[in-house]
Write a sequence for this structure.
């Protein structure tokens, strides 16, 4: 029963979030997944958790890339270009970490997600 209550709350919360708030929440989830892997780096299931966290973040940033390429996206071209460049950096870092894992390499991805989420939350307020 408690699990279903949590699911119901989660669904209700998602239904009431604005677009920017939802994007911020997903970015924070991505950062939390990366932070969890980083803090449990010596765990025996680290490789699976790392891959899952990186894939989640990769899908997230791919979504942003697709959204930015949409002709109806209202962001100014300068902002779009900046976020696209940032997403290209995120992609490169994800592939680098997949090839050569190191806990410290996650710091920049965590910081990017957290800072973008903070900006989205501030602009949604």
């Amino acid at each position: 029963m408690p699990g279903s209550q949590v699911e119901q709350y989660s669904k209700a919360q998602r239904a009431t979030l604005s677009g920017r708030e939802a994007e911020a929440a997903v970015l924070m989830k991505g950062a939390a997944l990366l932070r969890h892997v980083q803090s449990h780096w010596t765990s025996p299931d680290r490789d699976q958790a790392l891959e899952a966290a990186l894939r989640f973040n990769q899908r997230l940033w791919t979504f942003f890339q697709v959204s930015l390429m949409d002709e109806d996206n209202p962001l100014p071209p300068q902002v779009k270009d900046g976020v696209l460049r940032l997403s290209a950096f995120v992609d490169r870092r994800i592939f680098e970490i997949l090839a050569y894992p190191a806990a410290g390499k996650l710091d920049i991805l965590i910081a990017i997600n957290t800072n973008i989420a903070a900006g989205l939350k501030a602009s949604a307020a």
